[in-house]
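Z., the sequence and structure:
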Amino acid sequence: MVAWIGVIGAVCSAVIAGTFTLLNDEEPAKPAGAIGGDDMRTIADPTLPDGSKLAAGTKASKVWLVKNIGNAPWRGRYVERVGDDPCVTSERRVAIPDADPSDTIAVTVPITVNGHPGDRCVAGWLMVDHQGQPLFPRKIGQPPRNGNMWLDIEVISTKP
């Protein structure tokens, strides 16, 4: 009992003095693909805002204005499609422009609407590095809006 009191006293003293060392003093693991100081914010949704209505067969471009609000430059990055909802199709991975901290870029993804009238089509994209590793895993939306950026449209008719 006396030994435990001594150990507890030593730990309390170390905590108060801030001089203790953890058994595993390695830096905590970062999520896959994460870069320290890297961050983003979607600024605007200038094309196809949520709830847009498009005819089946329509080919369009979804554009997001995204700002680099971190301190890491963006080089060789992509947006990669999350899931395989056939209601809207796109390339699996699309390159995005390079951006320095504080830059705002337009991220553009060509899409094709394949659904039927009345369908709600929701698709998401993640910003990834050249190896496909997600760069902002903590900014992933909740289903059905998976990804850092998404499209949410309604199919209204078929094209003539």
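Strands lie at 40-44, 52-56, 59-68, 78-82, 88-90, 93-95, 104-113, 120-128, 149-158. Residues 1-33 have pLDDT under 50 and may be disordered.

Let me know what you think.
H.
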